[in-house]
Amino acid sequence: MTRQFLTVSISLAALAAATAARADTTLTIESWRNDDLATWQEQIIPAFEKEHPDIKVVFSPSAPTEYDAALGAKLDAGSAGDLIACRPFDKSLQLFQKKQLTDLSKLSGMENFSAISKTAWSTDDGSQTFCVPMAAVLHGFMYNETAFQELGIQVPKTEDEFFAALDKIKADGRYVPMAMGTKDQWEAATMGYQNIGPNYWKGEDGRKALIEGKEKLTDAAWTKPYETLAKWNGYLGDGFEAQTYPDSQNLFTLGRAAIYPAGSWEIATFEKQADFKIGAFKPPVQKAGDTCYISDHPDIALGLNAASPNKAAAETFLSWVASPAFADIYGNALPGFFPLNEKPIELKNDLAKEIVGWRNDCQRTIRSTYQILSRGTPNLENETWTESANVINKSETPEQAAEKLQKGLDAWYKPGQPTPVAAPAK
User: Fold this and answer.
1) Residues 293, 313: contact at Cβ < 8 Å?
2) Which residues does UniProt assign to the signal peptide (predicted)?
3) What is the largest CA-CA distance in the chain?
4) Are residues 273 and 125 both part of a single domain?
């Protein structure tokens, strides 16, 4: 009897110790999204901990501009958190190739994401995925509904209707037709070329053809968006060449511009600042009846630090991040950051619902320069910023810009040959 009691006592003690050890499990999340701290602390983490009271989670963000360097130093020193917010494409791929991120291909919940949703956090051949996709941002146009009503303008669906609307706004004179500057350059590419371009190069078909060398940036599908972009010059207002990104944001939210070439990340900020109702429309197609394409670009994911001492708990959290429950919380707490989960969720923000609804109408693609094509020198993404601004400024023709971009790509990129990712900067 004594021996049996002793065995039971030891078993209970072992169980209690194991339970206590598990109860003490704390996961730390590294991220650059310090703006989201309250959302994680007040909504996301409590929802998870309610289901998993034995796992505690701490969201520990860095300043966005410091994140990459700080994370690299922590990973190299072995002091990084258990969970790593993943940038899209090469920055995270570098960490995976250094064996600092874990292969999550077989993680429970990964079946909830399409191949294109996982592209930004997968190896070039798609065989391994190392981060759980969290959200994407969509591109299109936002507009001042009051201005459109005053001027009797219908939401444009084709490019002819789009430019007719711009002409009407310009002729009236009360509003700058479209708020975008070229001083910072990246908007010209991101909200200009990458916004309207997919309708010309047919989204994923064209993007993949460019990677495979079957198409070139000098082909009509890639130069014609620049011809359209050059026409924006007459509608951006006086001095747009010296206008910064914050200038453009203010021009629109103060009600002085009617249209804003947009990324969906603007939703929450714009709705807080503007005293008018904001509407949105997708990039107009070239002619009625054309298939529409949208830039639905992956923005953020979450990976597992390969050196984490809490892998089981971390995988439990990541499987939850891959669930519709997380997508529902995240998508509604941060309108404009759209979950990549294929399981449908109901968004509550009207503008966010309108924009994400384009996924049902249009073919989805990602920015053409992000996968593989910006690994060399000159960097195609950065060069596209410059050339897009030059085309809008009319300091270069669309043909000159395309030739320069293709020449730069030809200098280092050989389609069909392995294109290694550069080692992470120290």
Assistant:
1) no
2) 1-23
3) 98
4) no
Query: 231 with 320, same domain?
Result: no
Name the one residue in this structure whose structure tokens are 């197609």: 285
Cα–Cα distance for residue pair 46/42, rounded to 1 Å: 7
Tens of pLDDT along 268-327?
999 999 999 999 999 999 999 999 999 999 999 999 999 999 999 999 999 999 999 999
Same domain, 303 and 249: no
Q: What is the pLDDT of residues 102-148, one digit of tens each?
A: 999 999 999 999 988 999 999 999 999 999 999 999 999 999 999 99
> Quick check: bond before 378 cis, omega within 30?
yes
Q: How many domains does the chain have?
A: 2
Does one domain contain both 253 and 398? yes
Q: What's the pTM value of the predicted model, to 2 decimals?
A: 0.88
Q: Give a yes or no: residue 418 inside a domain.
A: no
- Residue 330 makes CB contacts below 8 A (sequence gap 6+) with 44, 134, 135, 337, 339
Does 103 lie in the same domain as 87? Answer: yes
Q: Is residue 425 part of a domain?
A: no
Q: Judge whether 147 and 351 are in contact, CB under 8 Å.
A: no
Q: Is residue 375 part of a domain?
A: yes
| CATH at 403 | 3.40.190.10
d(CA 187, CA 39): 27
Range of the domain at 287: 138-296+366-410
| 275 and 177 within one domain | yes
Are 188 and 388 spatial neighbours (Cβ–Cβ below 8 Å)?
yes
Side chain identity at residue 320, one-letter code:
W
Residue with tokens 């997968």: 122
281 and 146 housed in the same domain = yes
- Indicate if 208 and 258 belong to the same structural domain: yes
Q: What's the rounded mean pLDDT across residues 19-24?
A: 52
Q: Which of 409, 17, 69, 52 is nearest to 210 (CA)?
A: 409
Task: Assess if residue 146 is contained within a domain.
Answer: yes
d(C-alpha 192, C-alpha 287), whole Å? 19
